[in-house]
């Protein structure tokens, strides 16, 4: 039980740092988020499926973003991959075609470049991510 409570505190602290960064800057790419200690890791985001938003996040960061997203405190916004090119880091996968929804079924992994923004998902916009 003590380990679980400690883990929840760590995830809560990470969520607070991420939210603070988003409020301060208005949005954050995953490259931006990697500046926060503990965000980098070995997981894909999300950790399963053929639609990836990023590679190289920690379980703590995944859990923290999931908590913020489920609470309506953050939302995802698709961006051109050129934003990540300018930041010097991309996911080496085909880019998913997106025009408000994902085109196709994806039979192999694809990258959908996204940024996080503070606040709930605006009505009528994309709300695809799932966090388990």
Q: How would you describe this protein?
A:
- The strands form 3 sheets. The chain has a 3-stranded antiparallel β-sheet with strand order 1-7-5.
- The protein has one domain (2-118).
- The radius of gyration is 14 Å and the shape is globular.
- The protein starts with a helix and ends in a 14-residue tail after the last strand.
- The mean pLDDT is 87.
- Helix 1 crosses helix 3.
- With 132 residues, it is α+β, with helices and mostly antiparallel strands.
- Helices cover 36% and strands 20% of the residues.
- 23% of the residues are buried.
Q: Sum up the overall morphology in one term.
A: globular
Number of domains: 1
The structural class is: alpha+beta
Low-confidence stretches: none
Give the strand line-up of the largest sheet: 1-7-5
The largest pleated sheet is described as:
3 strands, antiparallel
Rg, Cα atoms, Å: 14 Å
Number of strands: 7
Order of helices and strands: HEHEEEHEHEE
Sheet-strand content, in percent, reads 15-25%
Helix content: 25-40%
Number of helices: 4
**Could you tell me the mean pLDDT?**
87
Distance between the termini: 21 Å
């Amino acid at each position: 039980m003590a380990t679980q409570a400690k883990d929840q505190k760590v995830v809560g602290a990470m969520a607070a740092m991420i939210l603070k960064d988003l409020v301060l800057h208005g949005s954050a790419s995953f490259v931006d988020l990697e500046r926060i200690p503990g965000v980098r890791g070995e997981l894909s985001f999300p950790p399963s499926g053929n639609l990836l938003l990023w590679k190289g996040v920690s379980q703590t960061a995944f859990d923290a973003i999931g908590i913020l997203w489920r609470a309506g405190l953050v939302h995802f916004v698709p961006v051109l991959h050129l934003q990540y090119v300018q930041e010097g880091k991309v996911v080496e996968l085909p880019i998913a075609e997106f025009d408000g929804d994902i085109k196709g079924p994806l039979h192999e992994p694809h990258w959908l470049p996204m940024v996080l923004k503070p606040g709930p998902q605006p009505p009528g916009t994309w709300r695809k991510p799932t966090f388990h």
